[in-house]
Design brief:
Distance between the termini of chain A: 31 Å
Number of helices of chain B: 5
Strand content of chain B: 25-35%
Largest sheet of chain B: 5 strands, mixed
Oligomer: heterodimer
Order of helices and strands of chain B: EHHEEEEEHEEHEEHEEEEEEEEEEEEEEE
Strand order of the largest sheet of chain B: 6-5-14-9-10
Largest interface: A-B, 66 and 78 residues
Order of helices and strands of chain A: HHEHHHHE
Largest sheet of chain A: none
Structural class of chain A: mainly alpha
Shape of chain B: globular
Shape of chain A: elongated
Distance between the termini of chain B: 56 Å
Helix content of chain A: 25-40%
Number of helices of chain A: 6
């Protein structure tokens, strides 16, 4: 368990940006089982009612509609992090896919393409930061010389 | 068997979510992240590369790993804290056997090949401390986000490099009058594993190649360069984006035009020729190759988040650098830039090494403070306090470094 916590801290991965609607529901402490339009999130047995979870698959991708296609097509040459570190618009994702197809040996995605782009735009949305973000949150510690 | 992991609400609430303000910053989400791919074939990078446990893994395929500011406190960065950046797949140890360096290109007098031993015997060896910083260091701050590794501030190191001068090699081999660029070719594999594609093949102008500090290095911090850092031969071109310092170099092309290898063209390592509005779709012909990195600094001690109890004094220290030139001044502010005080600044040990600074800060009273550090270079150019000019690939964010300090019981 300690090992897992250590690993959690080491792997500072891409921003796990969560859709605003999900934040809102989390804050209100609502039970997530009946969230409209998405798969029910899974609660581990020892969690008290009102807590919620975000499910991540073994590749590090948010489990949501389309994740299987993303896992299948987008993690053959490179890891999932190369995908999810980016926050792009729909047209930017499309342009990225075209670039990979033209120069990086990516294959035709066919019907999977729109599903993949939908998944990425929905689960890894662009969040505004402004011209400079505050430092918060800070991990405070007692300073010793 | 699928391994699933869960984030529970207590982890998320620890991040200080505010209703209506779902703004989350990449470097503030360590608790929310899950180890990727460890269930698969990837080795543990901490063991594989001998990394300090607090290094941050951005990507495991290709490997991209950065330091944190407080890990970079040493005057010379030790191996375990040196950032790792890859465009492709690290060669295998077996690929390093019988290494040769070829010289070719339009402007080579006669193509020639050297073994490693020949290079070491025929040419004088030199050692320099050279700072290398990734062109995308700081990318994570850009808004709208730029595509690529979301480095925060740890894609920089200053180590000892030992090797031969590229100048000596080029003058021995001979180059024609129309030579203008030196391009490197290397043994890392393209991500698609297509052997006909190069992962990266960048270059430097001839004048840069002829500088005394531009090396073909075979030692890093006194030992043979480790595999992941470019064994057995690495180009060292200080002051330029670190992608110019090619790893696993086995061929150099003397060009009669700007080198056009992988990651030299398109948008790679290029900035808009003129400032653009954030989010602009810039045409390729309006982009130009990055040469010198801009002035920058890091507070490496103390780590951000220090809570001072019953004291209002704090020593800080760090490093500053400025492309191919020197830093002439480093200042700090504890009032968000309203006023600045000078730090004591050392000279660099050689050109293009970082310079160390320190200061003793006295806080006026209890409260929350940020210590901001700002370096100024020989041209009088200083670091911006906001994220500088947006560019499509998120390069060259040299906004000042900030650490948080809480003074209590003052």
């Amino acid at each position: 368990m300690v090992d897992l916590v250590d690993r959690l801290k080491k792997y500072r991965l891409v921003p796990l940006i969560i859709p605003f609607s999900l934040w809102l529901v989390l804050l209100l402490g609502c039970n997530m089982d009946k969230k409209e339009g998405s798969e029910p999130t899974v609660q581990s047995p020892d969690q008290s009612p009102g807590t919620t979870s975000l499910e991540i698959n073994e590749k590090g991708l948010i489990v949501a509609p389309g994740v299987e296609l993303v896992s299948a097509h987008c993690t053959i040459c490179h890891s999932a992090q190369l995908v999810t570190q980016n926050r792009l618009s729909r047209s930017q994702w499309k342009a990225t896919i075209r670039w990979m197809q033209e120069t990086q040996n990516l294959w035709e995605l066919g019907e999977a393409e729109s599903v993949i782009i939908d998944y990425l735009v929905e689960n890894y949305p662009i969040v505004e930061k402004g011209r400079r973000a505050p430092l918060a949150p800070v991990e405070w510690y007692d300073f010793k010389d | 068997m699928k391994r699933r992991t869960f984030l529970n609400r207590s982890l998320l609430s620890g991040i200080g979510i505010q209703l209506g303000l779902p703004i989350v910053y990449a470097h503030h989400m360590p608790e929310a992240y899950v180890p990727l791919g460890l269930a698969s074939n990837n080795p543990d990078p901490f063991k594989e590369f001998g990394l300090h446990p607090e290094m941050l893994v951005l990507n495991d395929k290709p490997w991209n790993i950065e330091a944190q500011a407080h890990l970079l406190d040493d005057t010379i960065t030790p191996n375990e804290r040196m950032f790792i950046r890859n465009n492709g797949l690290v060669p295998k140890k077996e690929d390093l056997e019988n290494w040769t360096l070829q010289l070719d290109g339009e402007s080579v007098v006669t193509p020639i090949e050297f073994t490693l031993e020949e290079l070491k015997q025929k040419f004088n060896q030199h050692t320099y401390q050279i700072l290398l910083e990734c062109g995308g260091n700081g990318r994570s701050e850009f808004d709208p986000p730029a595509k690529g590794n979301q480095w925060t501030l740890g894609a920089v190191h200053c180590a000892n490099w030992t090797g031969i001068r590229l100048k000596d090699l080029l003058e021995e081999v001979g180059y024609k009058e129309d030579a203008v660029y030196i391009g490197y070719h290397a043994k890392d594999l393209h991500l698609s594993q297509d052997p006909s594609k190069e992962a990266i093949s960048r270059g430097i102008p001839l004048a840069k190649a002829l500088q005394p500090e531009t090396l073909l290095a075979f030692k890093m911090n006194g030992e043979d360069i480790p595999l992941v850092h470019g064994a057995p031969l690495r180009l060292i071109a200080g002051g330029y984006p670190a992608s110019a310092s090619g790893k696993w170099v086995n061929r150099l092309s003397i060009r009669n035009k700007i080198h056009d290898g992988a990651k030299m063209g398109g948008m790679s390592y290029r900035m808009p020729k003129f400032p653009v509005e954030p989010g602009t779709k810039v045409k390729e012909e309006d982009m130009e190759i990055i040469t010198q990195m801009p002035v920058k600094s890091l507070i490496t001690y103390p780590k951000t988040g220090a809570r001072l109890r019953d004291r209002k004094q704090l020593d800080i220290r760090g490093h500053a650098w400025a492309g191919e030139g020197k830093v002439t001044k480093v200042e700090y502010s504890i009032d968000f830039g309203a006023s600045w005080k000078n730090c004591r600044l050392d000279e660099p040990v050689n050109r293009m090494a970082w310079q160390h600074f320190k200061a003793s800060i006295n806080f006026p009273q209890k409260g929350y403070y940020e210590v901001w550090a700002k370096a100024t270079d020989e041209q009088g150019i200083t670091q911006p306090l906001l994220v500088p000019g947006w560019n499509p690939k998120g390069y060259l964010n040299n906004a000042c470094h900030r650490i948080a300090v809480m003074v209590e019981n003052g």
